[in-house]
Amino acid sequence: MEKKLPRIKALLTPGEVAKRSGVAVSALHFYESKGLITSIRNSGNQRRYKRDVLR
Description:
two-stranded antiparallel sheet; globular; 2 helices; MerR-type_HTH_dom; DNA-bd_dom_put_sf; mainly alpha
């Protein structure tokens, strides 16, 4: 019997979050600097956001 792995929530790029939310990428960076949202840095030091920042 084949086991299915649990789904892993994909992280979003700043551009994807900006497009879906209707705000500029610079606004996301501002919100992050004020502690309103948080990002995760990947191995290339690029920001990634969890999907819950869109809520």
